[in-house]
Amino acid sequence: HSRRGGVARILGYNLRVGQIIPGTRGKIVEIHRDHLVVQVEDATTALYLPPPGEAQAKRNEDEDSKEPVESEDAREAPTPAARVPDDKNEASTDTDENGG
What we know:
- The protein has a domain at 7-48.
- It is 31% helix and 26% strand.
- The chain has four helices and five strands, in the order E-E-E-E-E-H-H-H-H.
- It has helices at 54-66, 69-76, 78-82, 87-91; strands spanning 7-10, 13-16, 26-31, 35-40, 43-48.
- The strands form two sheets. A three-stranded antiparallel sheet has the order 3-4-5, with no helix packed on it. A two-stranded antiparallel ribbon has the order 1-2.
C-alpha cells in the first residue's frame, strides 16, 4: 500500500515499487519516507536514503573549517622571530652552517 504513488529517487533515477535499482540486483519492495525495502534474490534489506538537506549541511561545515580563527595568530607569531637581524651572521661570510 503506497499512499503517494511510492516513487523514490535513487542515483538520479525515479523508481517505484517493483522496479530493480540500476546497477544492483535489488528490487524495490516498499518505499518509505526515509528508506526503501529492497529484495535481492531471497533476502530483503532496508536501504536508508540520506535526507535532502544533509549534503548542503556538510558543504557549510567544510567552508567554516577552511579558515579557523586560531591559524591566523599562529601564522603571524613566528614571522617576526624568524626575521630578527643577527649581527654575528651579518658580519661573517655566508656558510652552510646556518642552512641559509
